[in-house]
Amino acid sequence: MVPEGVEARSGGADVGKLLADTARRIASGGRLQTATLERRSKLALLLGAMFARLAGRPGAPPATDRDGLWRLAERSACPLLAELEPLELEQLRRDVAARDDLGESPGLGELYQLLADVKLTRNRQGTLKISRARQGRRRAGLFFTPGWLAEQMAAWLLPEHEQRPPRAVLDPACGSGRLLWALAQRLLPPAADAQRAVACRQLVQSTLRGVEVDPLAAAICRTRFWLAADPLQGPVAGLERLVTVADAICGSLGERQEGCLDWSSVFGGQLDDGGFDIIVTNPPFEVLRGYSRRRGLEEYAERIRRSGYQLALQGNLNTWRLFLERCLQLLRPGGRLAIVLPAGFTTDRSAGKLRRRLLESGWLRRLHAYPESEQVFAGVGQAVVWLGVVKEECRQALEVHLGEQQAMLIEHSWIEALDEKELCIPLASPEALALAARLRRASTGSFEQVALGRVGEVDQTFFRPFMRSRPGGELLVRGEHMAPYRVDLGTGKSKERWLDARGFARKKGNGPWREHLAGSRIAQTGIVNMEAGRRLVAARVPAGTYLGNSVNYWLPRGLDDWPQEVASGYLLGLLNSTPYEWRFRLTSSNNNINIYEIKALPWPSLTSEFPPEMLAGFLERATELLAGGNYSVLGAIRQITAGWGAPDRGDRAVAMLIGRAALLREQQQDRQRCRWLDAAIDHLVNWHLGLDEPDLDLMYRRLPARAWEEKR
User: Fold this and answer.
1) Does residue 213 share a domain with residue 119?
2) Do 152 and 338 contact (CB within 8 A), yes or no?
3) Are residues 32 and 94 in the same domain?
4) Scanning 83, 131, 253, 486, which has the fewest C-beta atoms within 10 Å of its C-beta?
5) Is residue 540 part of a domain?
6) CA atoms within 13 A on the CB side of 333
7) What is the pTM of this model?
C-alpha cells in the first residue's frame, strides 16, 4: 500500500482559497485579464513561499522585512526572480509586500504542484471563482511524484553501501525537481552539517542535471537548490546549467535538428564520457493523437519520428515509451535508471520491443507495481510501476514488488513460457506463473481457428451525434448493458440507448459490419475497470442489434459441422469462465480488453479422435447430468470426465459439451442454478485446457467472488 500521512491530500482546497484571496487582493488594484491575474497570483504565492523559507535562515532579514528579503534574493541571483519580466518584477514586489503573512503556504515545490491543480475563472457577472485544473493535467499525463516514491527510487539508485558517488545524474523530465532533490538528499551531509550548503553547490556545479519543457517548473527546481545552497553565501554558480529548458524526447542524440535540443552541445561532456551514471524520472504519460484538433501536433510527431528511436514508435506515439528509450540511450554501461511508467508497460503490445530489450539483455532488475486503487498520484486513479534498470548484461531473476507485499523473484523462463512473442510481465505470484506456463504448454490451439473477432461498429465518440436518449431508431448495446450470458435489451436506462441507424450507415459506409449485423453475435465487454470483480463478460445479442465500441464481438468459424447454437455456446462458455478470466488478468494492465489480448490466450487444439458413433450418446448423457441438478458439481463433473466412455480433454466432444452447458446457463433464471452451472462450466473448461482441480482452486483463491462453495 501507499504509505499514509506522507502527502497533504487535502492541500488543493487550502491552496485554492489562498489563490482566490491573493487574486482578489491583486484585482482590487485594477482590472486584469483572467489569465494574467492567475499568473500573477500564482507567482505571488510562489514568491511568498520562497521568501518564507529564506526568512527562516540565520542572518537573513525577518519575514516582516519584505524589501530586505527581496534585495537579498536579487543579490544572490534567485532563479525564480530571473524568470520574471521587468514589469512583472515591479508588480509582484508590490503584491508580495501586500501579503499579511508568508508562513501559511506549503513548501515551494509542493505549492507549485498544488497550484497546478487549480485555475482561476470568472462567471458571467465577473466574480472570481476557483475551479479544478486536474483534468487538463491528467489529459496531458502529468502526474507529480509523491515524496515517499521519490525517496524509494533514490534509495535503490544510491544504496547506503555505495562507496563511489556518481559523476553525472540526469532527470530528463525534472519538473520542480523532487526526484533530483531526493537523490541530492542522499549525497549531501546531514542538515545540521555546516558543510551542507558547500556540498550542495558542488553537486549543482558538477553532478546534477535536468531537462524540463516548462520554464516556470525549471525555475522552481533551480530555486529549490538555490535555497539549499544558502543564498546568504552569494550567487550559486552553475544554477542556470542545472536545468535546461527543452524537450528531452525531441531531437536525435547524434544529430542537430532545428527546433530540438542539441544534446551534443548541452551535454557533450557526459555523452563523450559514455553517458550518465544515474537517470531518474517520472515522465508525462501523454498519447500524441488527435492531430486535426491540436495545431502543430502532426509536425511535432514527425520530428519525434526522426529523433533516433528504434523501440518506442509502435502504435500511437506515447511520451512515456519515448522517454524510456531516450533514458536507455543516455545511460552509460553499468549505469542505473529508475523510471515511473503506467502499468501498461508490463503487457501493452506497443511496449513489446522495449520489454524485449530490457528482459533479453537482463537490464531490468526490479519492478514495483501499484494498482489504480492505491492512488499513487493524489486524487488520480492510475495504475503505475517503476522500473529499476542496470545497463549491464545479466540473467538473474526479476525482483517484483506488488505494493508493500514481500518481493518475488520471477524467472525469465516463466515470462518466456507465458508469452514468447510479447514477453508480457505478469504481476502475479511464482505459483500462478508456473500454472500459466503449464497452461500454455498444454493448450496449443488458436482462438482464430474457432472465432472471428471485431470491435463494435459504433465508435461512441465519432458517431455520438447519431446516438439518442429518446425512443427512435435501433437499439444500441454498450458495455454497461452486459452481464454474463445476458444482455439488457430493455429501455430502462435510456441515456444514448438508441441509434439513428440510417444516418449512422450513411456516415459509416460499407464494410463487413453490415453482414455481421444481420446475424446474432457473441458480444463481450471491451472496457472494464481493472479492479472490477469480473472483466470478461459475454452474451449473445440478436440480429439487428448495434454494438458500441466499448464492446467486442465474436462470430464462430471453422465449426461448420457443429450446430450453430452449440458453436456460439462454446464461445460463451469459454469467455465467461473463471479459467479465462484468471488467465486474462495475468497479462492485462489497463481497463481495455483488446481483441488481440483475447486471441493471445491459450486455446485447446480441438482434436477429433472421439468416435463419431459415440458422440451423440456422450453429449446426451452429459447434458442430462448437467441439466438435472441431482449431483454436486464435482460429482457431475467426475461422472462426465472419468471412465471408459469419456473423450480426451482437448477433443471437440468436450468443446460441444461446454457449448451445451453454456446454452443451459443462458436459459436458466434461478440464481442458485446459475451459480451451479457456472461452477460446472468452470470445471469443464479447466479440464478442456489440460488442467486439474487443484489448478482451479488456485484460480478461485485469486478470484474469490467466482468460487462455488457447495453445502455438504
Assistant:
1) no
2) no
3) yes
4) 131
5) yes
6) 5
7) 0.84
